[in-house]
Design a protein that fits this description.
The chain is of the alpha+beta class. Helices cover 34% and strands 18% of the residues. It folds into three domains: 158 residues, 3-Layer(aba) Sandwich (Creatine Amidinohydrolase, Chain A, domain 1), CATH 3.40.350; 144 residues, 3-Layer(aba) Sandwich (Creatine Amidinohydrolase, Chain A, domain 1), CATH 3.40.350.10; 294 residues, Creatine Amidinohydrolase, CATH 3.90.230. The chain is built from 19 helices and 27 strands. The strands form eight sheets. The chain has a six-stranded mixed β-sheet with strand order 4-3-2-1-5-6. α5 crosses α12, α11 packs parallel to α12 and α14 packs across α15. Belongs to the peptidase M24B family.
């Protein structure tokens, strides 16, 4: 990493011209192997959101730099599959003469395979880069087309990627007990008890954040998330096998893991899976996240595969008291940094000279000033004017845009601190918003997004309620005006782990995972006018314990707002807010002011006083 640029690099400019020559080389490799096509997902062996540079095969082949996607290359055609976040971005980064863009949900790869594979075709795939569940869907699609899904022993892209980066060997360190809140041996015992209860002999752990949580360790193998890329097998007796490169393990970490954890080289995983199979063990495997390669090794070896969720996912999501205390402390620290940035932006933005990159760098600088910043939690989305309408916009030197007076500026950012992970979005006007074209529409949309944010923040709901049951609260004010947004309303957030953590979420998509006390989730409705501006207001909230409501008959859970930073009052239409909504906003701003004021320099204190005046 270029340390001069801090934790985010802006020189990685999209280049659509890479597609044609690289696809030609891939097709030559396909022909050499007797394949009619090959699938290239944006994934590594762990199926995580953040992948190391050597696993960015989709980006290398196509130029597409989004965090989710897939390409399928056939002899005479190719398609790239992206979700609603990237419908604009993909056209800027990918050669549309080579790749036909398809929507991952509305136009899934399975349908495209059925419609485009000819009878008898052989479609290759890397079984390390597809989950068992995904591979099963792809196999059925091939069968319906009269074709064959062919597992490859090595990846075809790797065979043609001459300067492919090396695999990472980031050091793995213990995560302090005062932040974890529970000793790793206690976690091993607690989680293994669930295996014993379910009559399962072992569970295969493939998600590095689960491994990091279970063993109270953190790593540095991928950007922005402290993950130790590794695999583990948890046994019903509370012992575990950890498969990780020995070069990552410090003496301190080895001592920390103790005698409950046996370390193995990664290449030993195949043998360990075969031993489970030979002993006819019943093995839990999360087929929605585990690689098809692991599933096939277990099946071929004779193991009894019990499909089930990763047993660490729910306990990891339900933060304990120490983790929640850490999240609160992290958000106060981060809120002060973000508020200093907003005050700086309000002073400097209208003068001219601030760009999307310089703003992102300034924000990182204020976070670095805390002395506690470990990393960003994701690349800052710093979008001015029309760039703000690109939901997951990533600014580069090629796309960097000045922040002009009258612009609507969206900044979505987050930080990693040892005691917590943050994620916050604010949308502000640069200078006097009255100079913005269509300012009446902007204020209307902004206020409707705010109404949705407040409605969700104020929600009370019984135990067992899922995020899909609450999603309408964030959208209703927009729906009443014939408006909507195409991303989820909320995602789970880890404790010094992934900024996107499951299984909880708030979304229109149906799901049955209850919002349990201790879960942290984002509250981020938005609105995007293509070619003009984007609006999003995001805070993180923690699900509270059920408590009684006066006159009620059953206790209700709710949300504790963790994020602390002003919301731009200049873009609000007060008359659109109900009395209750105004009361929430004024109380929130009073809390922001009272909590952050002592942490700010005098000039920023004066700014915060004005920014948090009652509406």
């Amino acid at each position: 990493m270029d340390k001069a640029l801090g934790f985010q690099i802006f020189s990685d400019n999209p280049d659509p011209t890479v597609g044609a020559p690289r696809v030609a080389r891939l097709r030559a490799e396909m022909a050499r192997r007797g394949l009619d096509g090959f699938i290239i997902p944006r994934a590594d062996e762990h199926q995580g959101e953040y992948v190391p540079p050597h696993a960015e095969r989709l980006k290398w082949l196509t130029g597409f730099g989004g965090s989710a996607g897939m390409a399928i290359v056939l002899k005479d055609k190719a398609a790239i599959f992206i979700d609603g976040r990237y419908t604009l971005q993909v056209r800027d980064q990918v050669d549309m003469a080579i790749f036909e863009p398809q929507h991952l949900v509305d136009e899934p790869a399975t349908r495209w395979i059925e419609e485009n594979l000819v009878h008898g075709a052989r479609l290759g795939f890397d079984p390390w880069l597809h989950t068992a569940a995904a591979a099963a869907r792809l196999r059925k699609a091939c069968e319906r087309a009269g074709a064959e899904l062919v597992p490859c022993t090595d990846n075809l892209v790797d065979a043609i990627w001459d300067d492919q980066p090396q695999q990472p060997f980031g050091a793995v360190v213990p995560h302090p007990l005062d932040h974890a809140g529970e000793d790793h041996e206690a976690k091993l015992a607690r989680v293994s008890d669930t295996l014993e209860h379910d009559d399962v002999h072992a569970a295969i752990l493939t998600q590095p954040d689960s491994i990091a949580w279970l063993f109270n360790i953190r790593g540095s193998d991928v950007s922005h998330t402290p993950l130790p890329l590794s695999f583990a097998i948890l046994h019903e007796d509370g012992h575990a096998d950890l498969f990780i490169d020995d070069r990552k393990i410090t003496a301190e970490t080895r001592a920390h893991l103790g005698n409950k954890v046996t370390l193995h080289a990664p290449g030993r995983l195949k043998e360990a899976l075969e031993e489970l199979g030979a002993a006819k063990k019943e093995v839990r495997l999360d087929i929605a996240s585990a690689a098809e390669w692991i599933h096939e090794r277990l099946k071929d070896a004779g193991a009894v595969i019990r499909a089930g969720d990763d047993p660490c996912v729910l306990p990891k999501a339900r933060k304990n008291d120490a983790e929640l205390a850490g999240m609160r402390a992290a958000h106060i620290r981060d809120g002060a940094a973000v508020t200093r940035f907003l005050a700086w932006l309000d002073r400097e933005g209208p003068k001219g000279g601030v760009t999307e990159i310089s703003a992102a760098r300034a924000l990182e600088g204020f976070r670095a000033d805390t002395g506690a910043l470990k990393d960003l939690s994701f690349d800052t989305i710093s979008g001015a004017g029309p760039n703000g309408a690109i939901v997951h916009y990533r600014v580069t030197e090629a796309t960097d845009r000045p922040l002009n007076p009258g612009d609507i500026y969206l900044v979505d950012s987050g930080a990693q601190y040892l005691d917590g992970t943050t994620d916050i979005t604010r949308t502000v006007a640069i200078g006097e918003p009255a100079t913005t074209p269509d300012i009446a529409d902007v204020r209307d949309r902004f206020t409707r997004v705010l109404k949705g944010h407040i409605s969700l923040a104020m929600a009370r709901f019984p135990k067992g309620t899922s995020g899909s049951q609450l999603d309408v609260l964030a959208r209703n004010a927009l729906w009443q005006a014939g408006l909507d947004f195409d991303h989820g309303t909320g995602h789970g957030v880890g404790s010094y782990l992934s900024v996107h953590e499951g299984p909880q979420r708030i979304s229109k998509l149906p799901h049955n995972v209850p919002l349990d006390p201790g879960m942290v989730v984002s509250n981020e409705p938005g609105f995007y006018k293509t070619g003009a501006y984007g609006i999003r207001i995001e805070n993180l909230v923690a699900v509270t314990q059920p408590d009684e409501i006066d006159g009620g008959e059953r206790p209700m859970q709710g949300f504790e707002t963790l994020t602390l930073a002003p919301i731009d009052r200049m873009l609000i239409i007060p008359d659109l807010l109900s009395t209750e909504e105004r009361a929430w906003l004024n109380a929130y701003h009073a809390r922001v002011r009272d909590t952050l004021m002592p942490l700010l320099p005098p000039e920023d204190q004066a700014w915060l006083e004005q920014a948090t005046k009652a509406v």
